[in-house]
Each structure stands twice: as structure tokens, then as C-alpha cells.
User: What shape does this take?
Amino acid sequence: MGNMQAIRIQSNQADEPTPFSPADPAPSSALGLNYDIPIPRPNKSGEMLVRIRAASIIRDTLTWPEMYHHPYAIPGNDFAGTIVSVYENRGYDTNIPNSFSPGDEVYGMSHANRPCTWAEYAVVKVDEAAPKPKTLSFSLQLYR
Assistant: This one.
């Protein structure tokens, strides 16, 4: 499917490097733009791929413990964008309703344990998104 750009927490470049953690959070200088990250794919029922058009920046993001659950984390939870694809539910889990289709404009917030929206694309769950009102721009939707 190709690659995307995303802001990630880079590894600690100190003289005596230790991994960043909630006790030793990454400074803002540890954020870097990476250009060759594989575009994620929805792989479970209830997931969808969203092309991110706007994401909020939260001042304290780098102090949140959830940021350090995965190496080279992509920060960000709030998003507004356009659905690219929805996991095809082939009848395995019919308990997850899905009223979204590719091309739909949405906004929402990914779960705190799965930050991922400071990127061109993000996989989010259906219940983390809502239809974007047509009267608002993508960026204004985040502050609604």
C-alpha cells in the first residue's frame, strides 16, 4: 500500500542513552518526522483506515505513560479525516456495527493506549469516530 510520513518519538540520543519512559519523558526535541513508515492496515473487525487531515497537539502528550507502550510511538489521539478503507467483516463478528464507508469524512479520538494520529494515516476503531458535520472544516472540527 505504500509509505507515509509521521511524527514519532525518536530514540534517546544522550551520552548514556536509556529509553524514554513516564519517569523520564521525551523532550520535544525527540520528536522527528519520518518519511518511510508503512501505511497501517485495518486487520480486525471494527477497524478502519483514516487519512488524517487534522490532528490536535496537546502540550502534555510526551508526559503521558501511554506514549511509551511501544518503541518509536506515533503520538496523537484526536483526529479528523477521510475514511480510506474499512475492515471487511466477513461475518466473524457481527456484533460490531459499522455505518462508515470509504470516502466518509469523520472526526474522533483514538483510545489513550493507541496514540497514532500525528501521521498521514491511522487505523482507528469504528466506535472512536463520528461523522464530520459538513458545515465545519477538518481543523475546526477538532475544537468543537
